[in-house]
Design goal:
Elements lengths: L13 E9 L3 H4 L3 E9 L9 E5 L2 E4 L3
Antiparallel strand pairs: 1-2, 3-4
């Protein structure tokens, strides 16, 4: 169930509600660990392509 009352972004294929579960690496690496607690998709958005971060500033896009 929804934990916070934040509007979804209509232009996005998916919206995720997250909570911070680990802040141990925050100060040293500027990283914190999140857990997705709820997810929504927009079924009207067809054939979405996903962007993946491969590390070191490199990204790849699914599909052709």
């Amino acid at each position: 169930s929804l934990k916070v009352n934040v509007p979804c972004i209509e232009e996005c294929f998916a919206n995720l509600e997250r909570k911070v579960i680990d802040r141990k690496m925050c100060l040293k690496y500027n990283i914190f660990i999140l857990e997705v607690v709820q997810a929504w998709i927009t079924p009207s958005k067809k054939r979405q392509r996903m962007i993946h971060h491969c590390g070191n500033g490199n990204f790849v896009v699914d599909g052709k």
